[in-house]
Amino acid sequence: MKKSYIHITLFVAVCLSLTACSSKNSQSANENIPQNSADAIDAQKEEETDELKERLQLYKAFLQDEISSENKEEKEAYYLRDYCNCVVPEEDKDRIQYALFDMTGDGLPELHVLTDISYSIHIIENNQLIEWYRGDRYNRPLNNRAILQKLETTGTHYSYTILDFNGKEVFSVGFSKPPKGFEKDYAYLFFVGDDEVELSEKKWDKLTKPFLSIGSDKIIWKNIEDLNLSMEAKEWKK
Fold first, then answer.
1. Are 161 and 169 in contact (CB under 8 A)?
2. What would the pLDDT profile of 164-183 be if each residue is shown by its tens digit?
3. Which of 4, 56, 113, 162 maximizes the CB count within 10 A of its CB?
4. Which pTM does this prediction carry?
């Protein structure tokens, strides 16, 4: 038991260190930049602005239920209404939220959609909206681009998932704690794959703190009724 606990602790520590967001600092002397290089930089910025505008237009069309998002594995296309439990999203907008946040690290925001039954992330490939990730409504993105699920049933159950650039799961851990006033049948659990360890409350708190302390304040959720994507380009970079 003790050996498994140490193994899991080290494994988690390594994975967290690998997924920490790195800051890229670059300095340049503007007076030494040739004019043609400055023109190239301006052209690149203009191209990125145009790409962002096109991306936001597709996001808006999807949120208005005008275009679909393709699931490549299923080879099916889904409209906004397919991610909801309501028949007409326009009549149930108070149950649908959206956010823009860069999950892939490419410098551009992806579209996050939260409904009464699902949480999904959508990207752009070849001017087509693609479903990058889909889970249930208990999933939420974190500032470090991981996804945390919190489910409260008999106790509180968490799962922490890291995705690669293509939206595929590369790492996942789970941990549960019993309800207040729990009986002996319940336990503090931590598991990675098939390895499950029963812990004391103190050890559970220490082991899960790195996951539960990651914030999500960079993700700004808005009601679909407030569908104004023109300002989002600034907000998602905070």
1. yes
2. 999 999 999 999 999 887 77
3. 113
4. 0.78
